[in-house]
């Protein structure tokens, strides 16, 4: 069999890892999350969109740099 199947993780484990990461950090960008979770940006975005849809996280646009930055944090309960 070709490829590295041991490198692939399911989306649920990535989502759990993102939740753990956001519970430790106050706010992170999409790029920071994908780098720290060690996954592709598209996979991290899919997971973040799901968490936003079920209202576990909040998103805001960053304005510190020229390019538009999406920042995510856990919702306060």
Description:
It contains 3 helices and 3 strands, in the order H-E-H-H-E-E. The mean pLDDT is 88. It is 45% helix and 18% strand. The chain has a 3-stranded antiparallel sheet with strand order 1-3-2. The chain has a single domain, classed as Orthogonal Bundle (Arc Repressor Mutant, subunit A). It is of the alpha+beta class and 77 residues long.
Biggest sheet, strands in spatial order?
1-3-2
Helical segment count: 3
User: What is the mean pLDDT?
Assistant: 88
Number of strands: 3
Q: What's the structural domain tally?
A: 1
Radius of gyration: 13 Å
List keywords for this structure.
77 residues, Arc Repressor Mutant, subunit A
What is the gist of this entry?
The chain is an alpha+beta fold.
Task: Summarize the helices and strands and which ones pair or pack.
Elements: H1 11-24, E1 28-29, H2 30-37, H3 41-53, E2 57-62, E3 69-74
Helix pairs in contact: 1-3, 2-3
